[in-house]
Amino acid sequence: MKIPVKRWFDERFDLEKLNQPIQKQLKKPLPGHISWFHTLGSMSLFLFVSQVLTGILLLVYYRPTVHDAFESVKFIMTTAHMGWLYRQVHAWGANLMIIIVFLHMLRTFITGSYKKPREITWVLGVFLFLLTLIFGFTGYLLPWNQLAYWATTVGTEVAGAIPVIGEPMKILLRGGVAVGGETISRFFVVHVVVLPWAMFFIILLHVFLVRYQGIATMDPVGSEKEVTTHTGIPFFPDHMLKEGIVFFILLGVLVTLAVMAPFELGEKADPLTTPYAIKPEWYFLPMYQVLKYFPKLTGIFVVSLAPLFLVIWPFLDRTPQRHPLKRPISISFCVLVL
């Protein structure tokens, strides 16, 4: 059966010519210092795919309206076949994805992989991290429970404090003066349509640049030695084996957390009842805490500096060294931020 099918495709496509670039990428050697930490990018990609697949399954029953959102999530968790598992894997996947993408950026920063000629690859990675945070923010409201409703109210109030554009931005996010039906509708569209496609194309470009430019060695900028089959390790099967092992470990961790530590749905959103000590999700707590140390306007300015510095950092750090021990200023700054 296999031979006739192959012959049929051979008569219509030059399979050998199509196979050559694939084989070239599979056999492309990687720098000898490649470690388990270099699987973090693939882990991020796996979690993105997991979020898309579980999100599609949740969409079968989810209804993005004030009256039906909470009940539809409750139905998924209590009645739909395996719905509780898909919902928990999706919820935990969102948290793990933020952690893994952050660790991937941290590894890139420590090894100096953002330096010339890979500045654009780093900038795209920063955008992916920011999109991951926005994913978390927009998805948090969709179950329409008390914590989600009031955390979104607090989050959009912060946006409203920005001078000049703050109030129009708050109304744009909410779809009105208060969090309501328009808000959940807008967050739903951004969460399931705009962000996935934006992330897909940026990931595509990011991965292309990584494969095209190769993974950075620890040599100084301008002195990188060419990685050969003798000095490096093959992408396939050596590195792919590591990624396969990490894939199964991550899948095990994801399912274990979903089963052993499920997220509670809580109570349905009630605009007239404010819960005690409302605060955003853990990944926004650093920014939330900074806002407490400064007047609101100053705090927003300080918080906005973080993504700005991330984007422009490769253009500020012009030193040729990549090794962390030879970059005391950059590493000290990294430790301070952490």
Primary descriptors:
mainly alpha; 338 residues; two-stranded antiparallel sheet; 67% helix; single chain
Q: Would you write up a description of this structure?
A:
This protein is mostly helical. The protein has helices at 2-10, 15-27, 40-59, 69-78, 83-110, 119-141, 146-160, 166-174, 181-213, 235-260, 285-293, 296-316, 328-337; strands at 29-30, 233-234. Helix 6 runs antiparallel to helix 9, helix 7 packs antiparallel against helix 8 (166-174) and helix 11 (285-293) crosses helix 12 (296-316). The longest helix has 33 residues, at 181-213.
Report the sheet-strand fraction. under 5%
Question: How many helical stretches?
Answer: 13
Assembly context of the chains: single chain
| End-to-end CA span | 57 Å
State the share of residues found in helices, binned by percent: 55-70%
How confident overall, as mean pLDDT?
A: 91
Record field, number of beta strands:
2
Give the overall shape, derived from the CA principal axes: globular
Radius of gyration: 23 Å
Helices and strands: which structural class?
mainly alpha
Largest sheet: 2 strands, antiparallel
Low-confidence stretches: none
In short:
Helix 11 (about 285-295) crosses helix 12 (about 295-315). This protein has a two-stranded antiparallel ribbon.
